Amino acid sequence: MDPAIRESVLRSGAIPEGEYEFYITVLDAADRRTELASTGARCAYPRITWPEPPVLIRPLGSDPAQRCDQAILLQWQPPTPPSHPLAQLVLQVLSSPVNE
Question: What distances in angstroms separate CA 5 from CA 1, 15, 48, 90, one per listed residue?
Protein backbone atom coordinates (compact mmCIF):
# COMPACT_ATOMS: atom_id res chain seq x y z
CA MET A 1 0.00 0.00 0.00
CA ASP A 2 1.21 3.49 -0.82
CA PRO A 3 2.50 5.02 2.46
CA ALA A 4 0.81 8.38 1.70
CA ILE A 5 -2.58 6.69 1.27
CA ARG A 6 -2.04 4.59 4.40
CA GLU A 7 -1.23 7.74 6.40
CA SER A 8 -4.30 9.52 5.00
CA VAL A 9 -6.58 6.59 5.92
CA LEU A 10 -5.15 6.41 9.43
CA ARG A 11 -5.50 10.19 9.89
CA SER A 12 -8.98 10.69 8.38
CA GLY A 13 -10.59 7.26 8.65
CA ALA A 14 -11.51 7.37 4.95
CA ILE A 15 -9.96 6.34 1.64
CA PRO A 16 -8.94 9.41 -0.41
CA GLU A 17 -10.76 10.08 -3.67
CA GLY A 18 -9.30 8.38 -6.72
CA GLU A 19 -9.17 5.15 -8.71
CA TYR A 20 -7.97 1.98 -7.02
CA GLU A 21 -7.24 -1.67 -7.71
CA PHE A 22 -8.23 -4.09 -4.96
CA TYR A 23 -6.84 -7.62 -4.78
CA ILE A 24 -7.89 -9.83 -1.89
CA THR A 25 -5.95 -12.77 -0.52
CA VAL A 26 -7.39 -14.87 2.30
CA LEU A 27 -4.72 -16.34 4.60
CA ASP A 28 -4.98 -19.14 7.14
CA ALA A 29 -5.37 -17.49 10.57
CA ALA A 30 -3.16 -20.13 12.19
CA ASP A 31 0.06 -19.31 10.32
CA ARG A 32 -0.84 -16.16 8.31
CA ARG A 33 1.14 -17.60 5.39
CA THR A 34 -0.99 -20.32 3.84
CA GLU A 35 -3.15 -18.83 1.07
CA LEU A 36 -6.72 -20.13 1.21
CA ALA A 37 -8.25 -18.00 -1.56
CA SER A 38 -7.42 -15.07 -3.80
CA THR A 39 -9.17 -12.79 -6.27
CA GLY A 40 -6.23 -13.29 -8.65
CA ALA A 41 -6.85 -11.49 -11.93
CA ARG A 42 -10.47 -10.78 -10.92
CA CYS A 43 -9.72 -7.64 -8.98
CA ALA A 44 -12.03 -4.68 -8.44
CA TYR A 45 -11.39 -1.24 -9.98
CA PRO A 46 -13.62 1.15 -8.02
CA ARG A 47 -13.50 4.92 -8.23
CA ILE A 48 -13.86 6.55 -4.82
CA THR A 49 -15.73 9.87 -4.98
CA TRP A 50 -16.80 11.84 -1.93
CA PRO A 51 -19.85 14.09 -2.33
CA GLU A 52 -19.50 17.81 -1.79
CA PRO A 53 -20.93 18.99 1.54
CA PRO A 54 -24.31 20.77 1.66
CA VAL A 55 -24.12 24.46 0.75
CA LEU A 56 -25.59 26.92 3.24
CA ILE A 57 -27.89 29.35 1.41
CA ARG A 58 -29.44 31.11 4.42
CA PRO A 59 -28.48 33.01 6.46
CA LEU A 60 -25.79 34.76 4.47
CA GLY A 61 -22.66 35.43 6.48
CA SER A 62 -22.58 39.01 5.22
CA ASP A 63 -26.21 39.75 6.17
CA PRO A 64 -26.17 42.33 9.02
CA ALA A 65 -29.86 41.59 9.72
CA GLN A 66 -28.89 38.24 11.24
CA ARG A 67 -28.25 38.94 14.91
CA CYS A 68 -27.18 36.50 17.62
CA ASP A 69 -30.21 37.32 19.77
CA GLN A 70 -32.77 36.07 17.26
CA ALA A 71 -33.71 32.63 16.00
CA ILE A 72 -31.89 31.67 12.82
CA LEU A 73 -33.37 29.34 10.22
CA LEU A 74 -30.67 27.42 8.40
CA GLN A 75 -31.34 26.35 4.80
CA TRP A 76 -28.96 24.44 2.56
CA GLN A 77 -28.72 22.71 -0.79
CA PRO A 78 -28.27 18.93 -0.59
CA PRO A 79 -24.86 17.48 -1.43
CA THR A 80 -23.99 16.65 -5.03
CA PRO A 81 -23.75 13.95 -6.16
CA PRO A 82 -26.42 12.67 -3.78
CA SER A 83 -24.92 10.86 -0.84
CA HIS A 84 -25.70 7.30 0.16
CA PRO A 85 -29.13 6.97 1.85
CA LEU A 86 -27.45 5.86 5.09
CA ALA A 87 -24.96 8.76 5.12
CA GLN A 88 -25.20 11.07 8.09
CA LEU A 89 -24.33 14.76 8.17
CA VAL A 90 -23.22 16.57 11.32
CA LEU A 91 -24.02 20.26 11.79
CA GLN A 92 -21.80 22.28 14.11
CA VAL A 93 -22.76 25.84 15.02
CA LEU A 94 -19.87 27.87 16.37
CA SER A 95 -19.81 31.38 17.69
CA SER A 96 -17.17 33.94 16.78
CA PRO A 97 -16.41 37.48 17.88
CA VAL A 98 -18.44 40.18 16.09
CA ASN A 99 -15.61 41.51 13.89
CA GLU A 100 -14.31 38.16 12.59
Answer: 7, 7, 13, 25
Q: Between 67 and 5, whose confidence is greater?
A: 5
Q: pTM for the whole thing? A: 0.42
* 93 and 76 Cβ atoms separated by less than 8 Å: no
Name residues whose C-beta falls within 8 Å of residue 37's C-beta, 6 or more positions apart in sequence. 25, 26
Cβ proximity of 48 and 16 under 8 Å: yes
Residue 83 banded pLDDT, cuts 50, 70, 90: low
Residues whose CB falls within 8 Å of the CB of residue 25, separated by 6 or more in sequence, listed in order: 35, 37, 38, 39
Rounded Cα–Cα distance for residues 41 and 23 (Å): 8
